[in-house]
Amino acid sequence: MHGHDALEHILKGASSQPRPLRRLLLDMARLDRATRAELAASGSLFDAGYEPRMARVHQGNAQRLRRIIESVGWPGSDLVGDDGAEAAWLILQHAISEPDLLRRALPLLTAAAREGKANPAHAAMLEDRIRFFEGRPQRYGTQLDWDADGNLSPGQVEDPQKLAERRRAVGLPPLAEQVDDARSRATAEEQRPPADCGAYARARDEWAAGVGWRSD
After folding, report:
1. What contacts 24+ positions apart, CB below 8 Å, involve 132-139?
2. Which distant-in-sequence residues (6+ apart) come within 8 Å of 120 by Cβ?
3. DSSP secondary-structure letter at 48?
4. Spatial separation of the C-alpha atoms in residues 74 and 111, rounded to whole Å
5. Crossing angle of helices 19-42/52-72, nearest 10°?
6. Which of 4, 41, 126, 189 is deepest in the core (most CB within 10 A)?
7. CA distances (Å), 214 to each of 6, 59, 124, 132, 211, in order?
């Protein structure tokens, strides 16, 4: 993985030579996916709590993405291509220990989507992710977690009567389709609901408060 000096060198030339920045983002996303796949295969990814090795990858990637945003703004498809922009979004989505980074990036990603430089669904999912960790109803229902019945569910959604319309507007599939896909993946990865859903929810909320997602 690129060190601090290498990253600064890439950023200095990003506007005139964006390909190294694209490669860096792809490498970061590849590390994320490879680590997740390895930990999922071993079963350790789904143990209680935030798996430490996965957390380190997410945190390291978040630090680099923060510096990228400080230097060039949101790395949209106009700068790093569609795959580079998707990699940046994946890295951001997984930076769950960095609330300020996700909050800061949301208006940047939303503007990039409006200008055709990012996927509107990515901005929608980021908004939902922020709302989920803040303990607020989602707008698009994209963030699923174990509910009290031991099922993966989006939980509370704002103005549910207009949910389907909002999802269509940003290119998201019907919610039922997303839920079915998520549950199928969980079964394939041998994920299991927590033995005590109440304790799981409390631990999740305590973690969210501890890293700064919630003020009370």
Report:
1. 133/96, 133/99, 133/208, 133/213, 133/214, 134/208, 134/213, 134/214, 135/205, 135/208, 135/213, 135/214, 139/166
2. 113, 169, 170, 171
3. S
4. 9
5. 160
6. 126
7. 35, 19, 20, 11, 8
Q: 129 Cβ partners below 8 Å, 6+ apart?
A: 93, 96, 102, 142, 143
**What does the alpha-carbon distance between residue 171 and residue 129 come to, in Å, rounded to a whole number?**
17
Of 159, 128, 158, residue with least CA distance to 145? 128
Residue 20, Cα to own-chain centre: how many angstroms?
23
Looking at residue 45, its pLDDT comes to 81
The radius of gyration of the chain's CA atoms, rounded to the nearest angstrom, is 18
Side chain identity at 84, as an amino acid letter?
G
CA distance 14 to 67: 13
The pLDDT, as a whole number, for residue 58 is: 96
- The structural domains of the chain, with segments of one domain joined by +, span 1-42+49-118, 140-216
User: Which pLDDT score is estimated for 7?
Assistant: 78
Euclidean distance between CA atoms 214 and 216, whole angstroms:
6
Amino acid, single-letter form, for residue 145: D
CB 126 within 8 A of CB 92: yes
